[in-house]
Amino acid sequence: MQTRNPILDDLARVASGGLGVLAGLRDEIDGLIRQQLQRRMDGMELVNREEFEAVKAMASKAREEQERLTARIEALEAALAEAKPAKPRAKTK
Description:
The protein is 77% helix and 0% strand. It is built from two helices and no strands.
């Protein structure tokens, strides 16, 4: 046999409403925290992911170019060292 108790029904409704209010409060607090974090991060002048990837690609390209030029200089210096030295010029007065 099931009996309905109006006090328990009211308590259940109040508890259910309280949970809804707490969920709304949690959402409000999350929003405020996100705003504060965003404000602080904007003040730090951090770069976003796209800018970071672009600079990373530029640095990689510059590094490859530098390595290529270093190898070229080393090859030219080796060729210059192998070349016979020219006769020294006589000093004229």
